[in-house]
Amino acid sequence: MSKEALEKAKKYTLFSFTGLTQKEYQPFFFEKADGIKVWDDQGKEYIDLGSQLVNVNIGYNNKNVIKAVQDQVEKLAYVAPKHAYEGRAELGELIIEEVAPKNAGKVLFTLGGSDANEFAIRFAKAYTGRDKIFSKYESYHGGTYGASSLTGEPDRASLFPTIPGFIKFAAPHLYGYDIKFDSEEEATKHFLNRLEYQIIQEGPEKIAALFIESVPGSNGVYVYPKGYLKGVREITKKYGILLVADEVMAGFLRSGDWFAIEREGIEPDIITFAKGVNSSYAPLGGVIISKEIADYYDNNPFTAGLTYNAHPVGIAAAIANIKEYKRLNIKEHVLELEPYLKGKLAELKEKHISVGDVRSIGLFGAIEFSYSKQTRDYVEKTLDGKPFLNTFITKIREEEGLLTLGGGSHIIVAPPLIITKEEIDEIFVRLDRAINYVDEIVKAGKK
Ligand SMILES: Cc1ncc(COP(=O)(O)O)c(C=O)c1O
């Protein structure tokens, strides 16, 4: 039966995010899931090491979130964006009063991260009256036109000409950078100088906003050097440029606070979020705007919208999900496990020749495979010449029962936030075993 369903899914539907042709792509068949685990149609069990797309933060089959969704569908399944209803009021208050930084004024609910970023672009341009938008190389902000224009990845940029006026600045990555710094502070200074130079050259008075992932996720969890985000906040303030923190992946406790940027004590002008807001029990994203931008819309009409803005089902799931985060003390749990995960990642790097770098914050980590521990010399091919990353991700799924995602030459370590220490230990036993395979590739040297 599942074989038939898999064939039909391939025949009639287009799979996204595969990096392969539809012919080559062989989807994994999902049967059911519970907690941090997933089962395929053969009854084989897997640990979800990536929370799918770093979004199922509360884990699968959470009864309270499910009940909230069921109750909402029965009570009122849909309300048009211009009407008010209870859930919208409750989640709005929860986000502005309890979750967001103090300067937050209002929230617009969207369907996901890409459209949240689309609206953030609109808000920034309308509020400032300026046109240009800055964002970083090695960033991901979504798959719609504006969000793809924000995204700083070579693949996406080559798909089509991006929107004019979208400017990219250098990622402040220490691993693999050709200048070696004595300290993180020195690196921060260097990258901030480069950024300010570029802003001046582009004409600060023309720049509406600077978008930045508070922790760049799909490009490999590159946590910024000390003081970098604070410096970006200062530069943007100096030139009247809005700072937009993309918290779609890093937010909602994944990085140890409601928003990763709050760990640095920074208040951005706009925050975009999705994924972990309701652990994806239904589609939902959002844009939080500062009090000043909210005031602007108190005095200027807001004409755009989407049929599914503030959809009651996504909102009901978010209210229940946030309540679950609180009931289960997920923030404290993530902060407690943060050093443990860091330690486990560091052990892997120490032990394995192929682990070039490891990075993490909260329960959000990456393992990067490289021929070198100093430079980004990616492992790209297996010993028999197959693309490395896809092969390795399939291998750890089939042989070690670990389901995850990755990009370039890294895999993501971001399990559901309800994971225990013992389960982390089990994951690392399996990773340790699997990485011997990559060591063999690196020992054989580049072909
Ligand atoms: C940082 C970031 N921004 C935006 C998006 C796009 O979100 P969505 O896929 O929900 O549109 C993603 C998705 O992975 C993301 O990681």
The domain tally reads 2
Low-confidence stretches: none
The H-level CATH homologous superfamily of the largest domain, spelled out, is: Type I PLP-dependent aspartate aminotransferase-like (Major domain)
Measured on Cα atoms, how large is the radius of gyration?
A: 22 Å
Distance between the termini: 43 Å
What is the CATH domain class of the largest domain?
Alpha Beta
β-sheet strand percentage: 15-25%
Helix content: 40-55%
Average pLDDT works out at 95
Compose a concise summary of this entry.
This protein is α/β, with parallel strands linked by helices. It is 41% helix and 16% strand. The chain has two domains: 31-58 and 329-444, Aspartate Aminotransferase, domain 1, CATH 3.90.1150; 63-327, Aspartate Aminotransferase, domain 2 (3-Layer(aba) Sandwich).
What does this structure look like?
With 447 residues, the chain is of the alpha/beta class. It folds into 2 domains: 31-58 and 329-444, Aspartate Aminotransferase, domain 1 (Alpha-Beta Complex); 63-327, Type I PLP-dependent aspartate aminotransferase-like (Major domain) (Aspartate Aminotransferase, domain 2, 3-Layer(aba) Sandwich). It has helices spanning 2-12, 51-54, 63-75, 86-99, 113-128, 145-150, 154-157, 184-202, 228-238, 291-299, 312-327, 330-351, 388-400, 421-444, and strands spanning 30-34, 37-40, 45-48, 104-110, 132-136, 166-169, 207-213, 242-246, 270-273, 285-290, 355-361, 364-369, 402-403, 406-407, 410-413. It has a 7-stranded mixed β-sheet with strand order 4-10-9-8-7-5-6, with helices on both faces. It has a 4-stranded mixed β-sheet with strand order 1-2-3-13. Strands 11-12-15-14 form a 4-stranded antiparallel β-sheet. Strand 1 (30-34) and strand 2 (37-40) form a beta hairpin.
